[in-house]
Amino acid sequence: MPNDAPSKDGTLKDARRFAPATLRNREPILAVLRDVLPAAGTVLEVASGSGEHAVFFAQALPALTFQPSDPDPANRASIRAWTAALGIQNVCDPLDLDAAASDWPVARADAVLCVNMIHIAPWAAAEGLFAGAARVLPAAAALYLYGPFKRGGAHTAPSNAAFDEGLRAENPAWGVRDLEAVTDLAARSGFRLDRVIGMPANNLSVVYRRT
């Protein structure tokens, strides 16, 4: 939700957006990232949304440089506002990056993060994500995904089934993805499955490594 309503004196508040789910999942995700990300280097985040994850991870992992990205100008404005408000030095200016695009505005990264995107986007975005990550990552580098997944063609919880139904009603091209289908796509794109970690609220952390 944007924080851009007029204040009492008629001026606009800053462009920061707030995603309630971020407060619930950022600590569990960070615990995984501490074990997955390199000690130093550049971490490209695809579909950064409000930017709350990027600034939180950057504060906790100061030896890393975070490169956020998002195709939505309002989200990029939110990322800039969060970075400025917190005075963070290791978050770069956000890139206008569409995961499905065949050309990304970044040449190299040491890891790629993508939180809660592939189920709220067409399958072409997942295909583009793996293709783009294959272009920018060196061997053995991590591609980290977070979100709900089906396993063996079945939902892991009734709440995920209901969530999936709601997504598909909003857009038939969206929906909770089969982990096996994602892993097959990963293999065809030059990635191997490294680990799958159960997370709160019936989500998963899925880590792939560039082969």
Describe the overall structure.
With 211 residues, the protein is α/β, with parallel strands linked by helices. It has one domain: Rossmann fold (3-Layer(aba) Sandwich), CATH 3.40.50.150. Helix content is 36%, strand content 20%. It has six helices and eight strands, in the order H-E-H-E-H-E-H-E-E-H-E-H-E-E. It has helices spanning 20-36, 52-60, 73-86, 123-136, 158-170, 179-188, and strands spanning 41-46, 64-67, 111-115, 142-147, 149-150, 177-178, 191-199, 203-210. The strands form two sheets. A six-stranded mixed sheet has the order 2-1-3-4-8-7, with helices on both faces. Strands 5-6 form a two-stranded parallel ribbon. The termini are far apart. 39% of the residues are buried.
List the helices and strands and how they pair.
Elements: H1 20-36, E1 41-46, H2 52-60, E2 64-67, H3 73-86, E3 111-115, H4 123-136, E4 142-147, E5 149-150, H5 158-170, E6 177-178, H6 179-188, E7 191-199, E8 203-210
Parallel strand pairs: 1-2, 1-3, 3-4, 5-6
Antiparallel strand pairs: 4-8, 7-8
- CATH architectural name: 3-Layer(aba) Sandwich
Which oligomerization state do the chains in this entry correspond to?
single chain
What is the CATH homology-level superfamily?
A: Vaccinia Virus protein VP39
Number of helices: 6
Mean pLDDT, nearest integer? 93
CATH topology: Rossmann fold
Residue share in β-strands: 15-25%
Let me know the largest β-sheet: 6 strands, mixed
- The largest beta-sheet arranges its strands as 2-1-3-4-8-7
Cα-atom radius of gyration: 17 Å
Number of domains: 1
Instruction: Assign an overall shape.
Output: globular
> Structural class, from helix and strand content?
alpha/beta
Counting DSSP E segments of at least 2 residues, the number of strands comes to 8
Helical residues, percent: 25-40%
CATH class: Alpha Beta
From the N-terminal CA to the C-terminal CA, the straight-line distance is: 39 Å
H/E topology pattern: HEHEHEHEEHEHEE
In terms of per-residue confidence, which ranges show pLDDT below 50 for 5 or more consecutive residues?
1-12
